[in-house]
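Class prep. Protein, please:
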Amino acid sequence: MRLTIILLLLISIAGEAQEVKQPPIDSVRYYQQKISQLHRKLFDSLRNSEEYKVAQERILYYKRKSDSYGSFVLFMDVAQADYDKFNSNITASGFTPLEGSALRFGFGFSGKSNRVIVDIFSLVAGVAKKSTKGSESIVTNFSSALLIDIGYDVIKNQPINIYPYAGLSVRSSELDYSKPAQINPSFTDITNIIQNRQSVSGYSGKLGYQAGVGFDFVIRNNPQKLGGNMLFFKAGINRPVGKENYKIEGVRYVPGIEYGKWIATIGIKFFGRQ
């Protein structure tokens, strides 16, 4: 009898210990939800306080007065292209001359803090130009993989900015010659299907520099949303460090093409005041 009582007492103690050691399965989730509710109550109390409301109103007031901004940018530019030396060579071989300026399109980001304006254009893709002779063709274009300009606003005015700028870029140019391959009608295997293939491609990647003057004009302003649209213009130069040269099958080729003695850019900035 005494042994039975002792066993019952041990079982009872073990059960109580187990209840203490094993909390409800959802206890962690419950207290996490409780803390989240307390956070929301605390933030709601802060947000509804008079001091918080006044501070928010003053922030909006000064943002509307500010001429600092951040923006997403879409644009196009027209760059000088000198094909004279190159044309003298290819026209002697019967090709049509390359003419006109280089047209490019791009996107990126622009921001202004106090008087400093920074443009970071992550891609500026060129539109190809083509010269032909029968079924043969020569194609070239001028692009930039990255372009960074830093300018300084000389008038500090909210709707209009005028800023000299300078910067660096990663320029890229391509030059391709395409001629249909001649098929060997008497081929015996894959090694002699093509009788003559003369098509070649060349690429030039150079560090570039640019400088000029930019203009921003606010064309649409939404004071409630602290943003709008700006029309912008930039005019200046965009030149390579050194001469443009192309690597073609391990050969260094200098065609004499020059880009960017002058360049003009127009675009839209979708901005927000900061």
